[in-house]
Batch of 2 targets.
Target 1
Amino acid sequence: MIAPHIHLHLMNETSPHRIRAAGRVGACSSGRSVGVCAAVCLAWSLCAGPARSEPAVEAAPTPSDQVAADPEGALGLLSDLERIVDAEEYDQWFTDDEAYDNVLPALLQSVCRATPAARQEALRVVQHRSRRSGNPRTLFQQAGEITDDVERALHDERKYEALRRAVQQAPAECPFWSPPEPEFLGRQTTRKRVALSVETGGLAQVRIAAGEANIGGGGAARLLGSYRFNDSFTVLGGYGFSGGAMVTLDTASSEVIINYFSAVPVLLRYHDVAWHYEFETGYVSLIQADNRVPSRGFRIGAGIGYSTLRLRTIIPWVGIIVAGEHYFRGGGRPPMQFVRIGARGGFFWDP
């Protein structure tokens, strides 16, 4: 009686164990006892050891793993969040529900433009800040009054809750035609981009020349290009023009002097959320209605201003400026000094 063939299947098809086992199987087919062959094959398989396991297959990344980090977008969103909450607090934040409803439309316009990764990173940051500042209610109970610590904790809590609500509503509220922008820079400032500043206003001025003082007033306008490096600093430069009438302080004289000024100013602005503080210097020149030969000089000035939230493509602001100008002898005029102070308004245009 001829024994049937016995086949051994090992995990590794090219293993020498399989080759040697195949020789044993061939021996069984030559007429030896089936029982003996089976015993030999069983022993050989036990000596060969367990079959090799297949290499582990890495799990496919989850959707959250596939979302690229967006730290720049988080900074842009945090900058807008600070401006929006600060503006509502400036208008006297009273009841929370009403205030959160007020900030939500402006905040959603920023949240919808930020990527999901930027939203989550910004939310994590403000949550951490809020926890670090503490519970404002507990701090108030301990102090018995509004302190700087209470105000800071309350401000951080409001920012976290406002952003949490906006992020929660974003999937349902964000329009399909406004997709998220990687590295979102923010809407409520012009940080890290070029913008155009248009400014105008009225001025009161005093002129001192050859021991005589004149007073008057006028208007001014200027067009400036700007670049904002970060949340704190902006540099501006451009061209300005102004004009005005002046009269002598000697009431016996009825002389009216018409002055026209041009300037090439350079400004550095420091921003503190909605407020800004500026230092200005630049070249100036002056002509008069009856004398078109210019006098030339320089200007040093300073100013303070307050910006509102964005209105479509512009960010409006209002402020006060003060400047001193010195003109060298020229055009038949003696050296002159001007002191100017006035209100100024304008806007940043950032389409």
Target 2
Amino acid sequence: MTPSWLIELPECDSTNTWALAHAEALAHGACVWTRSQTAGRGRGAKRWFAPPGVLTASFVLVQPSPLAARQLSLAAGLAVAHAVEDLAPRARVAIKWPNDCIISDRKLAGILCEHAQSSERVVIGVGLNLDPKWEQAPEQLPFALEGTASVAECCHADKAVVPSMPEMLAALRRYLIEAAGLISADGFNRLLTPLRNRDYLHGKQLQVEDGAQQHAGIGAGIDGEGRLLLRDGATQHALSSGSVSIVGPGEDARRFSRWFVVGDRKTRKRPN
């Protein structure tokens, strides 16, 4: 039986577009999902390609705290990481500011957060490579060859069963709702430590383009407003937005750990 919170569309151009158009009628925790998204959107003018096996869904949350989109994206990235690691224990998911999830230097998921107009509702779009069938979409192979990861490959490495899309949707929803609750109670600062523990860019040599401006330096973490910290000699910049390129390995290869306690389950340290 389909749960009441799940709205499955046979096909749509973009789940985020659909959810934004119907946001006022959707409850906290509602999820809009399709197996056939024809015009997925990423940050800016970027597209999100979704052949069969790519999970494309948008979650609606009532979030009275006035968080910027970048903060919501980072919080959602933590939720994606935790959900994936629950269902594919071999996975080790890092967060690449501002809106990507990474496994072994390859992109696993992208996140697009948008505020509904005249409402406290936010829409969190997730595009996750669950078990993508790139061979069924040859025009999208260049995208795949750029370096994508999938949940399926982590499961296959353990000879485990790949989770179904409904299973993954339920896990994502649970952690997104929990993250929203933490933020409402304690603000974004509650997530800073787990975010920094998973920060993919920390210690790497970066180049950041933000419109006509370009910055170069070493990734130095994430601040309390969700901005990327970039160290250039004795100067440190706090960047609110931008397109990030990694131009060198840098100085840090830190491990990362679980990001918050769920129920009575203890936080677990990742092995070295």
